Amino acid sequence: MSRYVPSLELIDRAAKGNIQAIGRLISRAEGGVPEARPALAQIYRNAGRAHVIGLTGVPGSGKSTLVAAMTARLREQGQKVGIVAVDPSSPYSGGSILGDRIRMSDLANDAGVYIRSMATRGAMGGLARASLEAVDVLDLGGFDTIIIETVGVGQDEVEIAKASHTTIVVSAPGLGDDIQAIKAGMLEIADIHVVSKSDRSDANRTIADLKHMLTLGAAGAFKPEWQSPVLGVSSYASEGFDALLAAIARHRDVAFATESGKKRQQAIARFRLLKTAENLLSERFASSVGPIVPGFTDQLQQREGDPYTLASELLATSFK
Amino acid sequence: MVQPIRVLLAKVGLDGHDRGVKVVARTLRDAGMDVIYSGLHRTPEEVVTAAIQEDVDVLGVSLLSGVQLTVFPKIFQLLSQNGAEDMIVIAGGVMPDEDVAEIKKMGVREVLLQDTPPEVIVQTLTRLVSERGER
């Protein structure tokens, strides 16, 4: 493939599972290549078969290791698994070190697993801009389950719940108490709570705190069909995976077959629409205001203008 | 939107020295590139699969164990089996001059040995990718 292969031609190859075609289409989605737009549109319209699992948690909680261990078991069930692993871009250089793949080295020789690393490139919320387009391409490529692993998040990056059928939140032991557990934000979005490193003695405390939080009131999109379980899992000791895989399978049924599941699918579509519009808007804005930003910055810094007035003018200029 | 250059840095075989490749990874990151690091002890098969799945522009193999004449033929064979002949392959590390000439004949585009200044590594990758053009 040394010449430029048109994206529409790549679709057939990708649909047959050709990894190079899949990889190239994802790259073009990531690069916002205009030539690839009609192809990506066609791919989206034909996608929607795969079960999309979002996996999120704080940095170092064991997300990548858990994804690898989960994937190995999904493979035993005969499922093909696609993985989109997001890591942060440098706020200074824009570059990145994408290291999630290292934790998944046991999967490296399995043709039924496709791993793609992605940098955030300034996107907030835990996903990269092209993460969901990558999911579409993997869906086209015949992957039954697609796991999106977010960047390591803090307390408030909850976009993944609006982009996946099943959201797993990974908590590591020893990072907080029962008050941390009742705060708003990330813990609310879990369809399944996983407490990682459950071979550690303090894991039981974290499991208890999360269970206690859940007794205070139901959260999430699936009440009353679904109660989020709290599952201790140890990749190190290879424990807890049967329960986790069973929970994922049960949640898949809820997500695809119930009334609230349909509502969730609708919310996913709505999020996708608005998020894409927002990205288009900010790209257009950034490219049109570039030349006038320095002057406005000076005015603001000299206190000759105020942020609200100048920003409104900037917007007005941009959409003239 | 300018696409950052994507690079897979790989360690193949029993070579356990990765301080150098980590310095290179950091240098390329700071030059604005997306860098995927394979980790230690990978096979040529694993590296080539990763390079294609990740659709990297450049596959950089770091070798300090003297196995370049065994590893590179395997890598090029696998790339060509997978229709990925357009992958830019470079080598880094320590090796004898005659091996440098030999692996360049096989298709390694540049060999950046241990005394290469960081900015030269960045310039070399940038040049190779821009010479290749759109894909």
TrEMBL record, chain A:
Q: Which Pfam families match?
A: MeaB
Keywords of this entry? ATP-binding, Chaperone, GTP-binding, Hydrolase, Nucleotide-binding
Q: Name one GO molecular function term.
A: ATP binding
Q: Which residues does the UniProt record annotate as the domain AAA+ ATPase?
A: 49-199
| Keyword flag Acyltransferase | no
Matching entries from CDD domains are given as: MMAA-like
Family statement drawn from the similarity comment of this UniProt entry: Belongs to the SIMIBI class G3E GTPase family. ArgK/MeaB subfamily.
Q: Known NCBIfam families for this protein? A: lao
Q: Which PANTHER family match?
A: LAO_AO TRANSPORT SYSTEM ATPASE (PTHR43087:SF1), LYSINE/ARGININE/ORNITHINE TRANSPORT SYSTEM KINASE (PTHR43087)
Q: What is this protein called?
A: LAO/AO ABC transporter ATP-binding protein
From TrEMBL, chain B:
A Pfam family: B12-binding
The record's Gene3D superfamilies line, in alphabetical order, gives:
Cobalamin-binding domain (3.40.50.280)
Cofactor(s) listed: adenosylcob(III)alamin
The family database entries (CDD domains) matched by this protein are listed as: MM_CoA_mut_B12_BD
Q: Which residues cross the membrane?
A: none
**One MF term in GO for this entry?**
metal ion binding
Q: Which UniProt keywords apply?
A: Cobalamin, Cobalt, Isomerase, Metal-binding
Domain B12-binding, first and last residues per copy: 4-135
* Top-level taxon of the source organism: Bacteria
InterPro entries xref list:
Acid_CoA_mut_C, Cobalamin-bd, Cobalamin-bd_sf
Protein name (record): Methylmalonyl-CoA mutase
Give the species: Tianweitania populi
